[in-house]
Specification:
With 285 residues, the chain is an alpha/beta fold. Helices cover 34% and strands 27% of the residues. The chain is built from 10 helices and 13 strands. The chain has a 6-stranded mixed beta sheet, sandwiched between helices. A 4-stranded antiparallel beta sheet has the order 2-1-4-5. It is globular and about 70 Å long.
Length: 285
């Protein structure tokens, strides 16, 4: 559905590439996470994949179409939700959607039904300028869905949103995959990516650092452990940690329960953020 081949991009006349030899493929009916800190090149790559920027070198195809040569054909079949809100704030929410439905030449479009789906039912006549940030982001997602896209590009769709708005957008992403759409999700929220994505790519300083399923990345780079809270001699809680990836785990657990008063016990695995830091040497801030 999406194929990037040796993509390079730089802003202005410079040999310093913000995207530096990036290649990957996204399968049909897949939620693919593109993960990295702000400034890593995520949005630039989305713009090349959607025909807004032309690669300096390399090629990108979506739905089998070369994006640089057939951008309009690609854009007619994809949905895009940008990181920065670009709605017509002096129009109502329904008027925003109806305008884009006409641009897509969609007949008998029901704006209220789509607004209901993204949790904005009953607010279609309100001016967008009266909307909160979370409501505007849900309207952006609704606009990206109105042409029933085969590929959905979501650029930081839940950044800075309240938990209710974030959960609503996650639900829509899962519904779109169930419908048969391929979802390309850029985010620096590793917990969100772990919940949603079939595969993830780590991008750092314009290059792919790793790409695989969250499970395989955790197995390859992660460290599993048991963490216990025990009562110390003075009654205060103390932390004990037992690695699960060596041959002494069973004996260590037995010793823990024999010699300590265990209050709580839980297993813990590496997070995607832990692995990102391990691979790239930097965090996501």
């Amino acid at each position: 559905m999406i194929k990037a081949q040796n993509l390079f991009y730089s802003y202005g006349k410079t040999n310093q590439y913000q995207v530096n030899d990036v290649s990957f493929e996204v399968k049909d009916d897949e939620i693919f996470g593109f993960l990295g800190p702000n400034g890593a090149g995520k949005s630039t790559i989305v713009k090349m994949l959607t025909g807004q920027l032309k690669p300096k070198k390399g090629a990108a195809s979506v739905l089998g179409l070369d994006v640089a040569h057939k951008p309009k054909q690609v854009q007619a079949q994809v949905g895009i939700c940008f990181e920065i809100t670009n709605l017509y704030e002096d129009l109502s929410a329904a008027a925003n959607l109806n305008l884009f439905a006409r641009l897509f030449n969609i007949k008998d479009f029901d704006a209220e039904a789509l607004l209901e789906r993204v949790g904005l039912g009953g607010r279609g006549r309100d001016l967008v300028s009266s909307y909160s940030k979370g409501m505007k982001q849900r309207l952006m997602v609704a606009r990206a869905l109105l042409n029933r896209p085969q590929v959905l590009f979501l650029d930081e769709p839940t950044d800075g949103l309240d938990p209710v708005s974030s959960e609503a957008i996650r639900r829509i992403i899962q519904e779109e995959r169930q419908r048969g759409a391929t979802v390309f999700l850029t985010t620096h929220d590793m917990l969100e990516a772990d919940k949603l994505c079939d595969r993830v790519a780590f991008i750092n300083q314009g290059q792919i650092a790793a790409i695989d399923t969250p499970h395989v990345l955790k197995q390859k780079y992660g460290r599993r452990s048991l963490k216990a809270q025990v009562a110390g001699p003075d009654g205060r809680l103390e932390l004990r940690e037992i690695p699960l990836d060596d041959g002494n785990s069973a004996a260590a657990v037995t010793e823990l329960f024999t010699q300590e008063k265990v209050i709580t016990l839980h297993s813990e695995e590496a997070t995607l953020e832990d692995i990102f830091i391990q691979i790239t040497g930097r965090g996501l801030a």
